Every structure is written in structure tokens, then in C-alpha cells.
């Protein structure tokens, strides 16, 4: 048996025990909470239109490269391909919100996306 | 970071470490307990910030959360060290948030459409008793696995390495069911619909089709078991399509309806989604009735490999790597490792062969490296001459990432 087997096993056990205590802190029997949307103008409109179909972690995942062009094409895809009932005016406001609150320079792009995003 | 959620700083710190561990793949430990980090072609430091923590879903071990509604959860690297991925560790991927809870006793599979003579309605017990039961060991891999490693970044779920797994799937041949239904010569595609549902009335239901030849392939199954157990709910209970060699987009979960078509399916998930520039990807098994100009459907899984453990060695100990390799079923030929920037490539040793569609483990023992920072480059090739590419092939949706891995080996002084 090669020496790295033992080392890897120890590392795995350490990681697993930490993982188990994490999951114990967030038991699956508890209803899954919603993510918090980042603060900013347009936040309520964004939540009203977008959160009925998907959680907010989709948004944060794209923040590190969340340029205005990306958010424009994402909102267009949600309207055109997935038929989200969002009017032109609301769509513009949502793109504006996302470009600021989830742009590459936003706090959302820098911070870790983990369980502490959710309330 | 949000300090106002009532958690102690130590809780937050621990979670952050876990997140970083899971996201960076730093489960790898080198000799002497020093953790070796990945070196990838792009700057991966930011990826960790974009991904979620480990989270335990019902019936699952802790998986890496990408999104929780719909649920998209990735298998941590440590569960990909073996050729078979445990059901509890298998990745979870849904397009729509409404996850069906199917009553197995009441379940019916409807088989119909213009391309059959005799529509069928089959219960699970009928499927088990009236058709030959077969098993195939095969990799189920999301088309967008490793999308999060593309540079420049591509929109979509930012998967790293774990949107895939390999299991023994047991069920009946789709060909046998289609034969019972009297598949006509005029049927060009076979369509698959499931018990899941889109969140809005206008949102396209997740429906896929297969070309006739792939539907009739003897390895294409309607599976009710995974690794000897009923399918987990989050992997498609009670019945899913298994399409060995093709990406997971075709492996419809919670399957309820099969329709033989005499004209190609025009639905969103076939006509628009899951497409890539055909010229950029050398495919053997194509989907001619769905090809439109240069945009072709994703079909086969690209030849690929993954390093799952590394040891840098040092002193008198040689460096070593372990991992898995796979392809679309054409047959793996070799896994090679270069320790000198690609001038010389040495072969790794394969582990047991579980079948042409399965993960195959491999192990590499290299030279003893002098102190310092080294890179091991890894690539797999198959028997029809396909080789992993030095850099991922850019495409708009970030599919088929099969670039060489570059693993950093730090040898202590």
C-alpha cells in the first residue's frame, strides 16, 4: 500500500467530520430557506419576478462575471425561452439591479457563496 | 459575507473553509500531510467564491450546492476515486423546481405516438416481469460538467468536476419495449417526457428525443435500479432513461411517456438548447435529424480523465497520481502523464475494466522529483484516436470540457 493512502484517508475523515457537523447544523427536515437577494434599487421587483421559478444562488454564481451584457442576455432568455411574464419596463429595471448588485465589482462577486448567504 | 445572521464567527470560518475545500478540490493530500493544490489552465481562485457549501439532501451524503431550487448539487471529488459512484454521492441536476414524487404502485409508462402500431401502458411490475432484465455500467455526465473552468467564463451552472458519476444501471432494453409497441419503419425519433413539470405554464417542459438508431441500441435502457437499489428519488425514481455513451441531458428521469415520432421534435430542449458548433467537435455518433447548419446537438461524452489523488513525493519517494478515465464507449487506449511540460509522456496503469461505458481507474508512479514546484499534465486517449485537448474548445454554452489537467506537485526542501 502506498504511503499516500493513509494521508488521504486522514484528510478525508477530517473533512467528512466537519461536513457532518455542518449538516447537523442545517438539518434537512427544516424547510429550505430562501437566499437573500443583494440590496439595491429594484430588489423587490427582481424578487417578485424571478424567485417564483428559481433560487437566488443562480444569480450569485454569475456575479464574478456578471457584466451588463450577461444580465441582459440572461433576462432576455428568461423572457423569450422560458416565458417569464416580465414586461419591457420591469425587465430594464431588473437588468439595472442585477448589473449593480451582481456585477463583477459588487460585494456579491467577492464574498463566498455558502450557507451563510441564506437566512 | 453577512454578519447579521446570528452565527458565530467560528461557524462562519468553518463553513468558509469547507466551501473552499469542496470548491478547490483540495481534498488531495500530499505525502507528509501537506495539501497539494490544483493548478488549472485558467485562474481558478475565483471559482470558490461562486459556489455553495456542502449540503445534505434527503438520501444523499453532503454534496456541493450550486443551486437549491431547482436542486443542482455536485459530487465532491473524494467520491470519484472509485469506478462506481455510490448512489448517496451521485450528483443531482434538475431544470425545473417541481420534483415529482412518483407512487411506484400507481406508476404507468405510456408508449405511443404516430410511429408505433400498438400503444402500450406498462406498470413497473410488468416491465420487470414481461421483458428481459439487463444491466450496463455507464457514466452519466452532464453536458456542462466543468463549465465553471472555462475561461473566458460561460453563463450557466458553474460545475467543476463532479457533475458526473458511474453506476450499474439495471432495467429493460428500450428496443424491446419499442418492438412490443410495433415501432414503424417511418419512426425517425423517439421522444421522452417525464413526471416533472415546469414552474410556469409557458415554460418549456423538459422533453428530449433520441434518433431511431440510438433508441434501438441494445445498451439503451429503461432503468429502475442503480447500483442494485431502486433509483434514488433525486436520480429519477422509479424509472429513467439510460443512454450509455451520451451525455446526461438525454437520460430523462421520472420517465412516464415515450412517443415515436415520424418527424423531428421541435421542442425547445431539442431545437434550441444543448447545442454546440458541430465543426469544433469530432463526433462519431451524431443526431442528423436534429442538426441545423453548424449547430448540432450535444451527443457523445468526450474522452476525458480526472486526477483524484496526488502525492508529490520527495526525498526518496517518487511522485504518484491516481484517477479515473472514460469516454463514449469507443474504448480507452491510454492515460498519459507528463512531468516536463509535455515533452515526454509516460503511461499510467489501468485498473479493472468494468465495461466500455464505465469509469476506469488508473494509477501513475513517476520519478522522484527535486524540491520545488512541479506540474503533472494528464491526458487520456481512446482507441479511435480521440485525445483530450490541451485547452477546452470554446463554445457558447460551455459543453464538453475535456482539457488536460495540470496538477501542481510541491516537493518540500
Structure write-up:
The complex is a heterodimer of chains A (119) and B (413). Chain A is built from six helices and no strands. Chain A has 119 residues and is mostly helical. Chain B has a domain of 189 residues: Oxidoreductase, molybdopterin-binding domain (Sulfite Oxidase, Chain A, domain 2, Alpha-Beta Complex). Helix content of chain B is 9%, strand content 31%. Chain B is built from five helices and 25 strands. Chain B has a five-stranded antiparallel sheet, with no helix packed on it. A five-stranded mixed sheet of chain B has the order 7-6-15-10-11. In chain B, strands 8, 9, 12, 13 and 14 form a five-stranded antiparallel sheet that branches. Chain B is globular, with a radius of gyration of 22 Å. The two termini of chain B are 38 Å apart. The chains are: A mainly alpha (119), B mainly beta (413). At the A-B interface, helix 1, helix 3 and helix 4 of A face helix 1, strand 2, strand 3 and strand 18 of B.
Short characterization:
The complex is a heterodimer of chains A (119) and B (413). With 119 residues, chain A is mostly helical.
Write the layout of secondary structure elements.
The complex is a heterodimer of chains A (119) and B (413).
Chain A: H1 3-25, H2 43-50, H3 57-62, H4 68-80, H5 88-101, H6 107-110
Helix pairs in contact in A: 4-5
Chain B: H1 9-24, E1 38-39, E2 54-55, E3 63-68, E4 71-74, E5 92-93, E6 109-112, E7 120-122, H2 124-130, E8 133-141, E9 164-173, H3 174-180, E10 189-194, E11 208-211, H4 212-215, E12 221-226, E13 229-230, E14 240-242, E15 255-261, H5 268-271, E16 275-277, E17 295-297, E18 304-311, E19 320-326, E20 332-338, E21 346-347, E22 349-350, E23 360-365, E24 372-382, E25 405-411
Amino acid at each position: 500500500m502506498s504511503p499516500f493512502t493513509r494521508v488521504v484517508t486522514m484528510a478525508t475523515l477530517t473533512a467528512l467530520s466537519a461536513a457532518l457537523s455542518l449538516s447537523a447544523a442545517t438539518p434537512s427536515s427544516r424547510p429550505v430557506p430562501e437566499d437573500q437577494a443583494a440590496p439595491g434599487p429594484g430588489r423587490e421587483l427582481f424578487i417578485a419576478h424571478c424567485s417564483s421559478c428559481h433560487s437566488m444562488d443562480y444569480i450569485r454564481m454569475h456575479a464574478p462575471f456578471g457584466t451588463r451584457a450577461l444580465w441582459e442576455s440572461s433576462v432576455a432568455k428568461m423572457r423569450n425561452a422560458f416565458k417569464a411574464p416580465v414586461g419591457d419596463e420591469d425587465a430594464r429595471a431588473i437588468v439595472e439591479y442585477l448589473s449593480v448588485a451582481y456585477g463583477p465589482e459588487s460585494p456579491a462577486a467577492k464574498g463566498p457563496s455558502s450557507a451563510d448567504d441564506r437566512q | 459575507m453577512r454578519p447579521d445572521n446570528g452565527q458565530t464567527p467560528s461557524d462562519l470560518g468553518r463553513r468558509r473553509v469547507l466551501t473552499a475545500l469542496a470548491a478547490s478540490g483540495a481534498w488531495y493530500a500530499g505525502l507528509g500531510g501537506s495539501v497539494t493544490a490544483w493548478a488549472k489552465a485558467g485562474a481558478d481562485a475565483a471559482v470558490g467564491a461562486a459556489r455553495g457549501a456542502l449540503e445534505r439532501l434527503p438520501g444523499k451524503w453532503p454534496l456541493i450546492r450550486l443551486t437549491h431550487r431547482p436542486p443542482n448539487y455536485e459530487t465532491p471529488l473524494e467520491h470519484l476515486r472509485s469506478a462506481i459512484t455510490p448512489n448517496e454521492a451521485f450528483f443531482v441536476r434538475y431544470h425545473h423546481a417541481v420534483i415529482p414524487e412518483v407512487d411506484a404502485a400507481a406508476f404507468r409508462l405510456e408508449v405511443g405516438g404516430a410511429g408505433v402500431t400498438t400503444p402500450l401502458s406498462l406498470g413497473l411490475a410488468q416491465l420487470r416481469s414481461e421483458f428481459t432484465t439487463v444491466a450496463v455500467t455507464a457514466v452519466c455526465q452532464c453536458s456542462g460538467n466543468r463549465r465553471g473552468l472555462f475561461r473566458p467564463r460561460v453563463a450557466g451552472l458553474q460545475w467543476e468536476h463532479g457533475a458526473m458519476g458511474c453506476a450499474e444501471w439495471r432495467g429493460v432494453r428500450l428496443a424491446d419495449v419499442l418492438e412490443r409497441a410495433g415501432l414503424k419503419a417511418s419512426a425517425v425519433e423517439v421522444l421522452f417526457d417525464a413526471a416533472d413539470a415546469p414552474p410556469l405554464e409557458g415554460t418549456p417542459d423538459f422533453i428530449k428525443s433520441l434518433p431511431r438508431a440510438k433508441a434501438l441500441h441494445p445498451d439503451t435502457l429503461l432503468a429502475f435500479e442503480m447500483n442494485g437499489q431502486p433509483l434514488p428519488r433525486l436520480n429519477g425514481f422509479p424509472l429513467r432513461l439510460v443512454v450509455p455513451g451520451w451525455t446526461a441531458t438525454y437520460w430523462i428521469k421520472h420517465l412516464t411517456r415515450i412517443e415515436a415520432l415520424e418527424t423531428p421534435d421541435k421542442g425547445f430542449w431539442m431545437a434550441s438548447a444543448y447545442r454546440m458548433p458541430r465543426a469544433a467537435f469530432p463526433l462519431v455518433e451524431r443526431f442528423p435529424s436534429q442538426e441545423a447548419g453548424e449547430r448540432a446537438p450535444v451527443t457523445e461524452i468526450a474522452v476525458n480523465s480526472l486526477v483524484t489523488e496526488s502525492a508529490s513525493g520527495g526525498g526518496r519517494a517518487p511522485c504518484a497520481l491516481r484517477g479515473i478515465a472514460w469516454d463514449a464507449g469507443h474504448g480507452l487506449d491510454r492515460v498519459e502523464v507528463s512531468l516536463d511540460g509535455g515533452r515526454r509522456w509516460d503511461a499510467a496503469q489501468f485498473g479493472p475494466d468494468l465495461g466500455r461505458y464505465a469509469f476506469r481507474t488508473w494509477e501513475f508512479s513517476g520519478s522522484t522529483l527535486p524540491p520545488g514546484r512541479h506540474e503533472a499534465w494528464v491526458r487520456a486517449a481512446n482507441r479511435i484516436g480521440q485525445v483530450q485537448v490541451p485547452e477546452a474548445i470554446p463554445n457558447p454554452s460551455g459543453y464538453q470540457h475535456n482539457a488536460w489537467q495540470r496538477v501542481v506537485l510541491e516537493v518540500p526542501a
